[in-house]
Amino acid sequence: MERQRELARKSRRIARLAAAGRKLIRIALIPQKDKPLKPNTANPSELNIVALAGGVGGAKLADGLAQILPPENLTVIVNTGDDFAHWGLNISPDLDTVCYTLGGLANSSTGWGRMDESWNVFEQMDRLGAEAWFRLGDKDLATHLERTRRLRGGEPLSDITRDFCQRWGIRHGVLPMTDDPVATMVDTVEMGELAFQEYFVHQRCEPTVKGFRFAGIESARPAPGVVEALEKADAVVICPSNPWVSVDPILKILAPLNPPIFGENGGKILVAVSPIIGGKTVKGPAAKMFAELGVEPSALAVARHYGSPLLKGFVLDTVDADLTEAVAAMSIVPFSTNTIMNLSDNRRQLAQDVLNFIQRLL
Questions:
Q1: Splitting the chain (362 residues) into consecutive groups of 10 residues, what average pLDDT does each group show?
Q2: CATH number, position 295
Q3: CB-CB contact of 87 with 81 (8 Å)
Q4: In this structure, is residue 322 part of a structural domain?
Q5: Count of domains forming the chain
Q6: Could you list the residue range(s) of the whole structural domain that residue 213 is in?
Q7: Pairwise CA distance, residues 217 & 200, whole Å
């Protein structure tokens, strides 16, 4: 009996030592801000980066990266699944948000639309009985009028965007994910399938989400310049945009590329920044979508959404630092830092942190 008790005590000690060893291994995988993953003397500002972006969060991090990287070292590929027609005009909400932000033209209080905007045309259209659920300011209307005119004249969206950027003083590259029409459709419990802006703006994200469909995605090709930018990039950053409706359309456009850009057979480092902080989003319906699709909204859920081997690294807020071990267990290298971008300095600091992290992964 005594011998059995002694063997039991030894077994418990061995189990404790094994558990401690596993914990040390997991901790060793987690990069700390003062503990680089491996020596790398390259200057992070010399990295060539492609950023995948959509919405306000994506535009803010793109702006932070543009404050650090020279124009030839940054290309922002923007979601166009949100594009739609309104008042007979072609509207590209994500493209415009990114461009207005990079050009210093955005309304800083909302993150979208133009600063110092006026609403004369909108007020008159409303008075005449036009649909008024999607507000278009006078300066913003000029963008849509000229884009629509040129699209109807046969110019591709990528050429129009490039010209607009030049006229707005934007030196870094901004490309739509495709010149082909793609429409994000939201399948809802109460109202069936809705076009994204109908769900997002008109219905204020109130219907319960069941799933998504990207109409036209099967035949859509990457816009000119997209593949070339990816081929010369040192790394690709997924900005803190909505994974379901801002990032997934871009990734689906890139998925058929051969050879693949990402994954086990792809050579590019892909790092994502979580749009969910402490189980909530700073802006937008991403957390609500996760919950309604049966997934507890968290930074960990975002990491799982993209998954390994697609992701090499994952950036989450310090509020969620307790999730780093769980991310590391997915064979994704985690990094925690402040990801709130209320001010321009916050955007630059997060961008610098992301670049430093990428440098350590190379």
A1: 46 45 40 45 85 97 98 98 98 98 94 94 98 97 99 99 98 99 98 97 97 97 97 96 98 88 78 97 93 97 94 97 97 98 95 97 92
A2: 3.40.50.10680
A3: no
A4: yes
A5: 1
A6: 44-361
A7: 20
